């Protein structure tokens, strides 16, 4: 790399090399030298460091290198912006939705900025620090060495609680609090009715009243909420029904269940349940105010039954 020397600066050959004058760059030498990549590790900072390795040591030379690198980066952003604007204009003229085109261009600009700053790789994957085998092994060893210390290992507070709060919605928080207060809730699957269940097909699954009872803003998104809570280890699906089968009658008369049963000539319902895991109960107790919360009256499931005689016989357990 050659640099122009400003007028008035007296830089002798001895200042550049103590033993001999610097050779003049020729076209053959420039052709034989491999060009340094403009991208790669470090982005703009890496380019500046590679350029500074062969630059003069005076402050003016370093300032010129920094300004040159900055102008290259800004020109690259400007060129990319013009190209994105031209692409957006062409897509809109071809009839593409304006909102979709704008969202695509915003995502493209975000990816370009993240790649330039070294936060994403060329494939758009986020670069996470500290995930090498050596670093993970060091962290795991530190956990084992500190496991005896109760001060760094709280009994009731799990380190994942803070991250879970960032990964759930407001409605999902209501679902967790409701299940923590009311316990296991009935869920119904609608299936086609066949002899002995052979060849039966599911028409609709996971119909419940959990989101309606917990006061969710969007109860129709209950399957999405349940899937995310199950992913986080807070909620569990069970094939076992709740103890009181009469609780399923309220679900079977709901519009969703009635519409599913009307889709087939013969339909039957399968009783299942949804409940919080032990980790979910600990999370709800730590993160939500449960005292005085009665789930809108659904917490008390007493039907006022009057049992005559011995009542329901207790299950006999055989000990082998």
Concise summary:
The protein is α+β, with helices and mostly antiparallel strands. Helices cover 45% and strands 9% of the residues.
Question: Could you explain the architecture of this structure?
Answer:
The structure is a single chain. By secondary structure, the protein is an alpha+beta fold. Among the domains are: 38-128, no CATH class; 160-288, Translation Initiation Factor IF3 (2-Layer Sandwich). It contains 13 helices and four strands. It has a four-stranded antiparallel β-sheet with strand order 2-1-4-3, with helices on both faces. Helix 3 (44-52) packs antiparallel against helix 4 (59-93). The termini are far apart.
Write the layout of secondary structure elements.
Blueprint: H1 13-16, H2 27-32, H3 44-52, H4 59-93, H5 98-116, H6 133-145, H7 160-166, H8 170-182, E1 185-192, E2 202-207, H9 210-214, H10 222-231, E3 235-238, H11 249-252, H12 255-262, E4 267-276, H13 278-287
Helix pairs in contact: 3-4, 4-5
């Amino acid at each position: 790399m050659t640099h122009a020397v400003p007028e008035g600066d007296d830089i002798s050959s001895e200042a550049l090399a103590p033993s001999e004058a610097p050779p003049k760059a020729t076209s053959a030498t420039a052709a034989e030298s491999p060009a340094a990549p403009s991208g790669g590790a470090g982005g703009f900072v890496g380019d500046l460091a590679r350029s500074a390795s062969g630059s003069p040591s005076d402050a003016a030379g370093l300032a010129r290198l920094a300004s040159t690198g900055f102008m290259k980066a800004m020109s690259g952003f400007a060129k990319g912006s013009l190209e994105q604007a031209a692409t957006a204009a062409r897509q809109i003229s071809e009839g593409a939705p304006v909102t979709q085109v704008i969202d695509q261009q915003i995502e493209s600009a975000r990816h370009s900025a993240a790649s330039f700053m070294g936060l994403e790789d060329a494939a758009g994957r986020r670069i996470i620090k500290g995930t090498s085998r050596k670093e993970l092994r060091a962290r795991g060893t530190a956990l084992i060495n500190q496991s005896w210390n109760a001060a760094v290992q709280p009994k009731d507070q799990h380190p994942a609680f803070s991250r879970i709060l960032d990964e759930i919605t407001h409605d999902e928080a209501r679902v967790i609090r409701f299940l923590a207060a009311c316990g296991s809730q009935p869920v119904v699957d609608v299936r086609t009715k066949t002899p002995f269940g052979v060849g039966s097909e599911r028409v609709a699954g996971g119909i419940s009243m959990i989101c309606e009872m917990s006061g969710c803003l969007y109860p129709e998104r209950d399957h999405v909420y349940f899937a995310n809570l199950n992913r986080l280890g807070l909620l569990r699906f069970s094939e076992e029904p709740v103890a009181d089968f009469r609780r399923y009658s309220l679900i079977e008369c709901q519009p969703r269940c009635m519409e599913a049963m009307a889709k087939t000539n013969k339909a039957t319902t399968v009783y299942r349940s949804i409940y919080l895991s032990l980790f979910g109960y600990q999370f709800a107790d730590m993160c939500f105010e449960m005292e005085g919360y009665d789930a809108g009256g659904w917490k008390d499931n007493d039907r006022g039954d009057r049992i005559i005689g011995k009542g329901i016989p207790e299950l006999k357990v055989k000990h082998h």
